[in-house]
Structure of Phosphoribosylglycinamide formyltransferase:
Amino acid sequence: MPAPEPAQRARVVVLLSGAGSLCAALLAAADEPGYPAAVVAVGSDRDAAGLEQARSRGIATFSCPLGDHADRAAWDRALAAAIAGHRPDLVVSAGFMKVLGPAVLAAFPGRIVNTHPALLPAFPGAHAVRDALAAGVPVTGSTVHVVDAGVDTGPVLAQQEVPVRPGDDEAALHERIKTVERQLLVETVARLVTSEENPDE
């Protein structure tokens, strides 16, 4: 039985900046019958490799580089418009390496979620795995949270622990976190779009 058409499922726009392993996990989940969300577009702040995953499936893509705009506020407005053109029910920031601005946040209040490779509020920011190793914690993990005006400060939706092993380096630990992160994102998106609750409540 084929998966339902996107019109019958929640519409998701994914934002990424790199290879898109998190996006790939969502795309694979959306191929499964019964998954309640469909990725209707994938956007980036550059010509990221992850966009090709969407193009190869006939899914719309868009690129909104910061350097193409007069300033960050203009970029923020352009990104909000690009996302809005795909009428998303949910926006997923999946390895998107820019902080989302007030225009995007206002356009999709409480409907943007992000993944983070640590157990927030511990180790926010771009170097979470490195920071966890430097702190010597025995456990770190992955968080899915609502995006707000801060950096990794929004309400937590889901978390899963990942033990730190003796001899772990940043690459090895991050790879194990990514494995957990993909599944946690897929499960959290499904839960959010089948709930009548706003994720920010």
The two ends are 35 Å apart (CA to CA). The beta strands are 10-16, 37-44, 60-63, 90-93, 112-116, 139-146, 156-163.
